[in-house]
Design goal:
Layout lengths: L1 E8 H8 L2 E3 L5 E5 L9 E4 L6 H6 L4 E5 L12 E5 L2 H12 L8 E2 L4 E2 L4 E2 L4 E2 L4 E2 L4 E2 L4 E2 L4 E2 L4 E2 L4 E2 L4 E2 L3 E3 L4 E2 L4 E4 L4 E4 L2 E4 L6 E3 L4 E2 L4 E3 L6 E3 L4 E2 L4 E2 L4 E2 L4 E2 L4 E2 L4 E2 L4 E2 L4 E2 L4 E2 L4 E2 L4 E2 L8 E3 L4 E2 H27 L2
Parallel strand pairs: 3-4, 4-5, 5-6, 7-10, 8-11, 9-12, 10-13, 11-14, 12-15, 13-16, 14-17, 15-18, 16-19, 17-20, 18-23, 19-24, 20-25, 23-26, 25-28, 26-29, 27-30, 28-31, 29-32, 30-33, 31-34, 32-35, 33-36, 34-37, 36-38
Antiparallel strand pairs: 1-3, 2-6, 21-22, 38-39
Amino acid sequence: MVPAAAPLTAAALAELVGGRLDGDGSLVLNAVGPLDRAHGAALSFLASAKYADAFAATAAGAVLVPEGFRRPAPGGPPVLIEVKDPQRAMAVAVGALFPPAPRVGRIDPTARLGQGVRLGRDVVIGPFVSLMDGVVLGDRVTVGAGCVLEAGVQVGDDSELDARVVCYRGTVLGARVRVKAGAVLGGTGFGFVSDRRGHHPIPHVGGCRIGDDVQIGANSCVDRGSIDDTTIGAGTKLDNLVHIGHNAHLGERCLVMGGVVVAGTARIGNDVILAGHSAIGGHFTVGDRARIGAKAGVISEVPPGADFSGFPARPHREFLRAQAALYRLAPIIDKLEAVAKERP
């Protein structure tokens, strides 16, 4: 259970999330926690019916529940707040109960700033940061300890780079971008021309352009383009350990889970979901709103709105049918082997 930094009454919270209050509105909520560990004046939420037993036994002071939820008798918390989406409402509530600390701009004395660096208002630059010549930071940008921004890198307003982020030349970040620790943006892509003498690197002179409201997870890599830019559209979120190859283009509002690899020059549409450890082959297109299952390997075009899974990736229903047929083969083989043994 986590104590809140700015407690709120149940009535104020219900108004904030647009919910219907059932219970004592004067209850001051001063913590948050899951149903099975929240107690006292803590807020929790009921995500689905499978947590009904935990809800009945919870000691939380208030719980966000879906609209139309019927209070069990007996059991349950003293205060309910009915909302359309409890999980979304909980996110809003946590934001209100845990407001960010007041921002104070500062530049650590160990930071190194090159010639022509331009800084917006209220920037925060941590210890041992290196900003090369011509770097531009917008207003209220935070650059964490040990970050390196090469010459000419641009970072938009209200963006945040955690510790040890590296942005190579040609990298441009939009507004409200969050880059977690250890990510590398704009590095040279994996491109070679091969002959009998070996593998010769292809020069990479393109850029790496990150749209507004993008999040890039820890230790993820987004390569620069070779003769084009690698781009990530506005609102797209990358989990940890994601690799985006050179010249790849990701659309807007995509969700890219941990361990995903998008090979060079792949095209990912808008609102696409790439589940964990899936891989998109080079030069293939994944259409808008498509969903790629975990560990799938895409080596063909994926139409808009399609669900693909398996390796090689194919329409999800087709993959499930193939898997079911494969599992039915085992007992058939057992019977055939038994018959073979019975023959003289």
